[in-house]
């Protein structure tokens, strides 16, 4: 704690750098992964190849993946963000597919029977009801990215990993803690915020009166599948 008290501005700057990397990487990962997951629910024959590629990327050690990025993107934030995006795809894509495909079939059949187009079905039924599962994937990816981004200090990305590795090289526990404590707090806060958001969505899903009119009618039994 002494290092934090003596160097508050440095710790703050590195915390902001770390947070920026996570926000950029997770935001882009969601923008890519959720639409891709939706596409896979329409083109099921692509699920095997896409899950296979995302699974292989997920198994590559983080440091090795960062190193692979260097010849193509150099050092710094860019290869770090790209590596985190690649790591995040498996959880986001799989949870999106699971969230959409596990919706009660009677709701889908009732919506189709009422003449909803595929786009209406997606926007009014599948995405709202699948959001809790999709959010669970985003939550896991966010916490994971906060930890993995620490290793990116090796390729000059900055962030709180700089303090941890400086502390390791100088064998200074105080400096290591100055980097580790903000990371732990960041992960706990991010997880807490996303859990609250996820519970909110879960509650919304569990209360038919707050969903679309069609879902409400299906839950009430006034609309039946054909």
Fold topology:
Elements: H1 2-6, H2 8-42, H3 47-59, H4 62-73, H5 77-101, H6 105-113, H7 118-148, H8 161-170, H9 173-206, H10 213-220
Question: Could you characterize what this model shows?
Answer:
This protein has 226 residues and is mostly helical. It is 81% helix and 0% strand. The chain is built from 10 helices and no strands. The longest helix is centred in the first third of the chain and has 35 residues, at 8-42. The termini are far apart.
Looking at the chains present, what oligomeric state does this protein adopt?
single chain
Rounded mean pLDDT is: 83
Radius of gyration: 21 Å
Distance between termini? 65 Å
The residue ranges in which pLDDT falls below 50 over 5 or more consecutive positions are 206-210
Specify the overall morphology. Answer: elongated
Write the element-wise H/E pattern from the N-terminal end onward: HHHHHHHHHH
Total helical elements: 10
- Total strands: 0
Q: Can you summarize this structure?
A:
By secondary structure, the chain is an all-alpha fold.
Offer a few descriptive terms.
single chain; mainly alpha; 226 residues; 10 helices
């Amino acid at each position: 704690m002494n290092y934090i008290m003596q160097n508050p501005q440095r710790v703050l700057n590195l915390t902001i750098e770390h947070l920026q990397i996570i926000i950029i990487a997770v935001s882009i990962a969601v923008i890519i992964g959720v639409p891709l997951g939706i596409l896979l629910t329409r083109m099921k024959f692509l699920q095997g190849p896409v899950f296979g590629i995302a699974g292989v990327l997920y198994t590559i050690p983080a440091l090795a993946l960062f190193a692979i990025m260097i010849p193509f993107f150099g050092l710094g934030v860019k290869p770090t963000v790209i590596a985190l995006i690649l790591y995040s795809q498996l959880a986001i894509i799989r949870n999106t597919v699971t969230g959409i495909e596990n919706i009660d079939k009677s709701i889908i059949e009732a919506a189709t029977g009422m003449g909803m187009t595929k786009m209406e079905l997606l926007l009014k039924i599948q995405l709202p009801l699948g959001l809790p599962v999709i959010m669970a994937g985003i939550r896991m990816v966010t916490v994971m990215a906060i930890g993995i981004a620490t290793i990116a200090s090796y390729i000059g990305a900055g962030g709180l990993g700089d303090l941890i590795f400086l502390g390791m090289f100088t064998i200074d526990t105080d400096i290591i803690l100055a980097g580790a404590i903000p990371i732990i707090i960041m992960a706990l806060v991010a997880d807490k915020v996303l859990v609250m958001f996820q519970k909110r969505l879960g509650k919304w899903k569990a209360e038919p009166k707050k969903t679309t009119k069609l879902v409400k009618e299906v839950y009430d039994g006034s609309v039946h599948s054909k």
